[in-house]
Design brief:
Blueprint lengths: L5 E11 L7 E11 L8 E7 L6 H12 L6 E5 L11 H18 L6 E12 L6 E11 L4 E11 L5 E8 L7
Antiparallel strand pairs: 1-2, 2-3, 4-5, 5-6, 6-7, 7-8
Length: 177
């Protein structure tokens, strides 16, 4: 506890590469949850020892495939009701995973534990620049309360430039219907 500021946690983690399960790196982090104001994201400082596998080649293949589509990509229910993700939708799921990490960080408290449960709907937005833009409706599973919350997020991405969530908002439960 830090008087009049918040609660600080020191974490030691092993991060697993989602593309290569045998590749791991050690991570240490300090997370500060501010007292009182629940609208402030936790402050996070971290260090990573080592490097995860370079994804440039896979990123470029995915980028080229999406850019070459005649019609904008539209998909639903990733993973499906059996937990399956088709190989061509795996990069869309990974992009949502990264973007939802930002949404989760911005909206977490000491008493929440969010996890991306499913992409209900994703639609590519046509752009004139070199970015890919996707509008996602995702379902976040809050593990403590067991609630499923629909969340809309707009995501920009291009290889070697990272993921940017340009807009996100919690949706009413009836958005699932």
């Amino acid at each position: 506890d830090i008087d009049d500021v918040g609660h600080k946690y020191h974490l030691e983690l092993v991060l697993e590469d989602v593309l290569d399960k045998d590749s791991t790196v050690n991570c240490t982090a300090e997370v500060l949850y501010h007292l009182g104001n629940k609208n402030i994201a936790p402050a996070v400082q971290f260090t990573i020892e080592g490097e995860l596998k370079n994804t440039d080649e896979a990123d470029n293949i995915f980028y080229s495939r999406i850019k070459s589509l005649e019609k904008e990509l539209v998909a639903e229910n990733i993973p499906d009701s059996h937990g399956s993700v088709s190989p061509e939708m795996e990069p869309i799921r990974l992009l949502a995973q990264v973007a939802s990490g930002y949404v989760i960080w911005q909206n977490s408290t000491e008493n929440t534990k969010f996890q991306l449960a499913q992409i209900k709907h994703v639609k590519q937005v046509k752009r004139s620049d070199d970015c890919l833009e996707f509008d996602y409706m995702i379902l976040l599973h809050e593990m403590v309360s067991q609630e499923i919350t629909p969340w809309q997020m707009t995501v920009l991405w291009r290889p070697q430039h990272g993921v940017q969530v340009t807009q996100d908002s919690c949706q009413p439960k009836h958005a699932l219907e």
